[in-house]
Amino acid sequence: MLKLQGKNIVIGITGGIAVYKVCQVVRGFKKLGANVDVIMTKNSTQFVAPLTFETLSGRPVVHDMFKRKTEWEVEHISLAKKADIFLVCPATANIVGKYANGIADDMLSTTLMATTAPVVICPAMNTNMYKSVSFNKNLDTLVSRGVHVVKAESGFLACGDTGDGRMADPDIIVDCCVKLLCPVEDLQGKRVLVTCGATIEKLDDARYITNFSSGKMGAAIVSAALNRGADVTVLLARHTAEIDARAKIVNVETTEQMYNRAVELASEHDIYVLAGAPCDYRPEKFYESKIKSEELTVRFIKNPDIAEKIGSIKGDKFLCIFSAETDDGVNNARKKLLKKHADLAVLNDVKHNDVFGSDTNVVSLVTADSVADYPEMSKLDVADLILDRAINK
Q1: What are phi and psi of 354, to 5 degrees?
Q2: How far apart (Å, rounded) are the C-alpha atoms in residues 351 and 45?
Q3: Three-state SS for 123?
């Protein structure tokens, strides 16, 4: 049986020179046995004729919101419900802005708004547009809602510029969709404990200290583990990332609370991924009233070490820790790994990479006797790398 036999893929095509590449995307899906329906915007038909996609998909192409000539054209009304996955490829700044802000004024945007299927968008545009504040704000909005993004590549663009903005390779796009449609459930029966977010330590009733963690890495691990069939518990501190509702969520505030719950739940789990960012120190004294001194000296005391404690009691279970470093990263990560009896350390170079709050990451996976460096990738892909290591321990 073909890998995507019986799967329904709806592809929304917007206007851009990369439209011709979508022909290869459609062919890739058809070779895998998928049913493919195509919706084209009016602008996209200026680059490739609808007949081309009708021929490749074996299905009529919807490209006019009001046109009614043949019986089959009524069928497009159900495309939003029919889709197992909805792919927008190429995705212009215009469609990203519409989708992020709830604008539905043509067939593609209205169908996209109505679907409950997983949505994948493949941006393609001029490099200055791709890096603009407005586009990235809209893209961040979509990512926060769970929309998947196949990041644009860097290279020579049709406009003559060189830089980010070129649509991803068709094979990469197809692989991304296959991964979403046919997840490998190799964690069935496994219980995964994830720490996520930044703990807080109160100074008084109005102030606390914390760190820059958004919780996005932890959220990605939660989703990846669930997608692979695991039962997941997340110890969730302060965060801005959206957490998969399928997980069991245990809310915590302070490092001590996260420590206590982690120790309490350790024996119930098989895999520990400590992606949270607990504060290493807390104020020695908590002030009941708001501090109003002209000068303030705060004495801090060390918080308990969650990773070290889990490492001491885990036995032969898998423990992954994170190491955010500014200098001598590999050596520092390995020292931390050995001290905490962890199986894997994920090294983040926070000095040279935009780690906090980003949807992507550049990591090195460090063990006692090896280092594997990876290029920039989505945090969901980093999560899968970690879980692959857990499976192959």
Answers
A1: -85, 90
A2: 46
A3: strand
pLDDT digits (tens, 9 = 90+) for 11-43: 999 998 899 999 999 999 999 999 999 999 999
Nearest 10 degrees: Cα torsion 357, 153, 168, 214: 0
Rounded to two decimals, what is the model's pTM?
A: 0.68
Backbone CA torsion sign across 271, 276, 280, 286: negative
- Active-site residue, 159 included: yes
Distance (Å, whole) CA 233 – CA 216: 16
Q: What are the φ and ψ backbone dihedral angles of 129, each rounded to 5 degrees? A: -65, -40
- List, in sequence order, every residue forming a beta bridge with 232; answer none if it has no partner: 192
- Active-site position among 89, 122, 159, 177: 159
Residues 6+ apart with CB under 8 A from 391: 186, 187
* Rounded-to-integer distance, Cα 346 and Cα 187, Å: 20
Strands 363-366, 344-349: pairing is antiparallel
Pairing, β 300-302 against β 281-283: antiparallel
